What does this fold into?
Amino acid sequence: MTTEATTNTGGKPAKKLTMKKRYSALTRDLDWKPSYVTEEQMFPHTTYEGIKIHDWSKWDDPFRLTVDAYYRYQAEKDKRLYSVLDGFAQGQGHLTISEARYLNAMKVFLGGVTPLEYAAHRHFAYLARHYNGPGPRFAALCQSIDEMRHAQTEIHTLSNYNKYYSGFHNFSESFDRVWYLSVPKSYFDDALTAGPFEFLIAIGFSFEYLLTNLLFVPFMSAASFNGDLPTMTFGFSAQSDESRHMTLGLEAIKFLLEQDEDNVPIVQEWVDKWFWRGYRVTAIIAQMLDYMLPRPVMSWKEAFELYFEEQMLGGLFPDLAYYGIKPPRHVEQAIWEKDHLSHVVYETLYNFSFAANFTTTVPDEEHHKWLAQQYPDTYEKTYKPRWDKYEELDKAGKRQYFPGLPQLCQVCQVPMCFPAHDDETQTQFHSEFEGEHYNLCSEGCKWIFEREPGKYRQAWLPVHQILAGNCGGPTVPDVLAWYKFQEGDNGEYVGSVDHKHWIEWHDQIEDVAGETADAGKEA
Amino acid sequence: MTTETRTVSVDIQETENNRALIDAIEADNSELVMRHLPGIVKLQAPGRLEINRASVEERLGREWETHEFQMAIVTLAGNISEWDEDHIVISWGRPVEDDEDDDDDEEDY
It folds into this structure.
């Protein structure tokens, strides 16, 4: 086996070691035992969570990744991406996407996801210092660098659209200020303020393994389908790292479970908590897939069934049952919700897009048909009538916006819009803590709140902050000025700055071409 | 060990570069189910899916190292239960011990 490998390396210097031995030599063998401090002094953060690790060397990295291979392949991934970006910019690619409103999905992505990549970069760097074992430290180091690469390539890619379209220009500050972006921000802050093992289960396992497919895969397919080659390329480029992160997450949970039986109940609670926390963040993805794409590619429901129910509940959890791990608490609500989630969330965003860095609009006829097909049990019965009502109002010149501020959930910070599976009229849950009243969107968030009320009582809830006078002033224009919004960033898509430009630019092409290039003109 | 009937899956970017890889996987996994999504091919197989360097090289007409699989993969469902110079195996169930350990005198740590 060893000699075969040696003869198969082409013109490169002969390798004497197998992949496994190289990995061992270049990661594990570079470790040393501290001599002038104790191990406890060198790694002070890995005991307080109650997790017991007896043998760090049992951590397995199936990718057998070494520094040289890592950088070689990452460099190649970046080269491929940047050649696509160049071609796109030179070829006026911003005019070839399906329609300007497609970019609303990218505004949400840049505002809500890219800053999480950066936060992940920071925290994996911390883990790369603080785990006792060299295996997990090296895996965390690679992931830290990956996450930085993702943040940079996403910003770089989407900066091409910022030259022509609204809503992209202040994404970083928006993340700290704009109300709906507190959903992903508070989620990740929650993970950053947890211990090193909880973070690993929160982000490494629950997010990367259980849920990331729902975020990236249909989304990148949608970019491909909507003519957004740069996003498709950065998405796949990032996602190729993601499979490594997924593997890390899966190894992490198995490692913790195998190390000590006492770890099992702790890990189970983290899986319960972080499945629900992460799942609530994916509500933003659900509405993107179903409503924001002019050419939809896969419904939230289908993506959830394929990537979560089939692959995770059907594939992964039977494996974890061996260790005594059960499917996450409240998963039945998520399964039931797949018929409702995107609709209630997009309706909420439609009502509050006057205060968001993207625009919304009522789905057109074709889109209604597609939604009715995808959601035979709920769309025509419950959700289409609402859109019909909004459309009627819009035609009468009274475009609907909610005339106030929404009640946010204390944990996930999403407006409380989710119907409960055992009672569709129930969208409000409550809890008391030290004489104070707290509002929660679901059984899942209520359970999370009551586990750690002292943590969640400190949440920075945008609506409360506006009312407390911390967001630029008491009126909507004051708050939007504090968000640094410009004309065209927010509100209704039809007649917006982006919509007008889109028509204008395509009319120009038509004039030049002397033929009808009508695509995308109709709203 | 659990029964191996659960589906494992790997999603690969649908590019010219990856065509040989996809063909090789198809040839080596008789029960493979392929599904095309924009930009992606989703490959699913009951219980186990393997990728063999020799098959890929045969179709690619050049040398191919298994690390290159990282350039092609979008996501997977299953454990990577084997990854060495010659094979990558994705399966459910508890991974089998690496056979390389047998002739391995190294210290793991």
Notes: The first strand of chain B starts at residue 7 and ends at 13.
